[in-house]
Amino acid sequence: MNAIRPRSRRARLRGSLTILAFILPALALFCMLVLTPIIVGFYTSLFKWNGLGGLPRDFVGLDNYTRLFADPVFYGDLWHTVVLVVLSLVIQLPLALGIALLLNQRLRGRAFYRVVFFAPYVLSEAITAVLFMLILSPSVGLANQILGIVGLDGLEWFADQSTVLLSLFLVITWKYFGLHMILYLTGRQAIPREIIEAAQIDGGNAWQVFRRVTLPLLGPTIRISIFLSVIGTIQLFDLVWIITEGGPSHASETLAVTMYQFGFKRFQVGYASAISVVMFLLSLVFALGYQRYVMRRDLEGATTVLREQR
Amino acid sequence: MKWIRRTALLCAAVLAIGGCGGAGGDDGGGGSSDSKKVTIEFWNIATNEPLKSVFANAIRDFQAKHPNIEIKNVAIENDAFKSKLTTTMQSGKAPDIFHTWGGGVLKQQADAGLVKDVTEDIASWPQKFTNAAIAPYQFDGKTYAVPHDIGMVGIWYNKALFKKAGIEQPPATWSEFIEAVKKLKAAGITPIALAGKAKWPGHYYWSYLAMRIGGLDALKQAAETKDFTDPAFIEAGRKLKELVDLEPFQKGFLGAAYDTADGQAATMGNGKAAMELMGQWAPSVQSSAGKGIGDDLGFFPFPAVEGGKGTNTEALGGGGGFAVGAEAPPEALEFLKFLTEETEHRKAVESGGVLPVLQGEEDAVKDPNLAEVAKHLAATTGFQLYLDQAFPPAVGQEVNDSVAELIAGTETPEGVAKAITETAKSE
């Protein structure tokens, strides 16, 4: 035993060096492209700074934050985020789940449907935005013309403060349900046939099998899909910026849009940094809390494997 | 055919360069061919005709005269230009020559020491700029850019629709204007096209009303004291609200952009609205985004407000000029001098790409719509730069945003004045 020890220590050292060599490039990039901007963002958020002429000098402490927390637009942003998250959870994700389960059935043209439903996700945000601006245009849009044929009054979609958020949600759903659908579909296919069969033999009807077997086994997939959906909504920008620029009258503004307004239109980079810090903290708190309390079981497998190897 | 012309031009250029080189050698005692070649970056937004070729030709001619200077033509689309310039400036550098709209943005850049003070250089040039043209680039008695274009905002109207609604002549006062809007509505015509999403078209109404009610001095004073709570500004908001309450705008205007297929310009260009308040570029966008209404299009200055201090010969507008980076070589100014010399600038005016910025250049305008604008510009008794350019960017955007809220009905006239004042004080 004693003879082996030093050798194993050396081997362990070599192992650590190997690990280091492998993670170093990624670590360097991570520090440069992720950590540094976060730190710089924190730093500039403490200054009144228009972004011009070298480093910020006008230190204002937490003024940018007190101003932010006193701004009704900020609370509007938070409210819009909450609304979109809730709508996503109760409409978009169940819809994606339903379609995924349908497409799991033996169905003529199944592959075709999968491609069709996934296609919007592949489109760029900008193209999606322009597409829907044309479709939902109050004066010349396709949607209102179809409504007209059925004899209904056309809606103002993005041009009305009361419908703009729902219209945006429509676009978001169209764009992203494909991703969640594919996630659910792969999750569903990972469930062994025999489990389902066993449940059926035990006399479970379709609903019972779904409720008691399929759904619980899809748990990990659903939890990760909710996670992606919420984080995506907190950072929602491209679609909103192109379609409404946050309007009319801030009715569809999100945190990222407000940040862009202040950073790149008003050149109040310090204040914009404060908004980005708040966005970062929101995402961070949610991500940590969610992983700690909701996804713990899903992650346990992964971490224990690592621990055993150690 | 095209290539023949091009080859001929190339030959001519080569000959010209050869000729100049020889002449330079004689003057300087054999210097110019071995003097170091200077490259000047020229950032502009001329991505469309006619200005695109005007600049290309000017650069060719200039380089022919100055073989040791190379002008690198960097033409970037308007919005992309703004973000690219911002990013460059934030890294502490400025291009040698760059397009500017003057006002608060240019002042911030000048304060950061990124822009050259060109006051003395311009004074020694033979060409004389009009006061309106150079005003946007002057702060504290110093000039920070060379004007190249100027224009003004006014009301473009559809003569046929006015006739249909029984309006004899363009309204000259605010109450006549309101009357005209009511008549148009009664005739089933959308009185005004507005791009509510873009916000800046809406701010023209508030700006003009403030100018007409409080006079140019009120705006000047507000910019200095950072106080916009003067009754004139609140009254401007009330008058605008009076207009908004008549619901004069096209359906879905709050979501409309300016130059898209269902935007403000297209609505006007397709004859679906009777008026729009817009700058001198309106006719060309009307016919590119929509069909264009040809001879039916007319122009009149923003009406005067009864009892107000301003007159309707005072114009809101802006232009385009070229600023020089603080560290640019002196050859940059040499090029700008060439570009704005009367013979050269006339070519730009004749092309219809810009309006006169030099004294006595008005006769070069050919397009009848632009000639109309040039005529009004020449007769202006006062000039105010667009507020979203004149003020620091944050204040300018606040004007746009809060006026947009007023138009959407979520803000009061008092609220607008208060919001702008708060932002101005925080700058």
TrEMBL record, chain A:
Keywords: Cell membrane, Membrane, Transmembrane, Transmembrane helix, Transport. It is a multi-pass membrane protein. It holds the Pfam family BPD_transp_1. CDD domains: TM_PBP2 (cd06261). InterPro entries: ABC_transporter_permease (IPR051393), MetI-like (IPR000515), MetI-like_sf (IPR035906). Signal peptide: none annotated. One of its GO terms (cellular component) is plasma membrane. Belongs to the binding-protein-dependent transport system permease family. PANTHER family: ABC TRANSPORTER PERMEASE PROTEIN, INNER MEMBRANE ABC TRANSPORTER PERMEASE PROTEIN YCJO. This is Binding-protein-dependent transport systems inner membrane component. It comes from Thermobispora bispora (strain ATCC 19993 / DSM 43833 / CBS 139.67 / JCM 10125 / KCTC 9307 / NBRC 14880 / R51). The lineage of its organism: Bacteria, Bacillati, Actinomycetota, Actinomycetes, Streptosporangiales.
TrEMBL record, chain B:
Keywords: Signal. It comes from Thermobispora bispora (strain ATCC 19993 / DSM 43833 / CBS 139.67 / JCM 10125 / KCTC 9307 / NBRC 14880 / R51). Pfam families: SBP_bac_1 (PF01547). PROSITE patterns: PROKAR_LIPOPROTEIN (PS51257). It comes from the Bacteria. Residues 1-25 form the signal peptide. This is Extracellular solute-binding protein family 1.
